[in-house]
Amino acid sequence: MTTLAPADRPALEDEPSPEPGPKTLYRITGALFVLGAVLINIPYNLLIANFNYPDILREDTAKILTDFQAEGDSLIYTWLAFAWSGVPILAGIFLLRRILESE
């Protein structure tokens, strides 16, 4: 039994194309923006509740650092989550650029 290489066999109409269609790309891009907006608000609200952010930024540096140290590792992980939750938005920006260039 001989199998044909992908380049040798005829393309079938039912086969999915390797490149996503424009509607799929629009949906993925939109979903990434919505997901990023939702994800970024979770650690932001935790920072408001636990660290009095952003009002604490108006305080003296010594008070900010003392409160930061008092909160411990949980505050560090919250800041880390706040930083990383923007990644879906960044991916959405790259896909949006790809969409706009193709039009």
How would you describe this structure to a colleague?
With 103 residues, the chain is mainly α. It has one domain (22-102). It has four helices and no strands. It has helices at residues 22-51, 61-71, 73-84, 87-102. It is elongated. The two termini are 45 Å apart.
Sum up the structure in keywords:
mainly alpha, 103 residues
Helix-strand category: mainly alpha
Termini gap: 45 Å
The overall number of domains is 1
Oligomer: single chain
- Helix share, percent: 55-70%
What profile does the largest beta sheet have?
A: none
The overall average pLDDT, rounded, is: 87
> What percentage of amino acids are in beta strands?
under 5%
Q: What is the ordering of alpha helices and beta strands?
A: HHHH
Figure out the total of helices. 4
As residue ranges, the low-confidence spans are none
Radius of gyration using CA atoms only: 23 Å
- The general outline is elongated
Total beta-strand segments: 0
In brief:
With 103 residues, this protein is mainly alpha-helical.
What topology does this entry show?
Elements: H1 22-51, H2 61-71, H3 73-84, H4 87-102
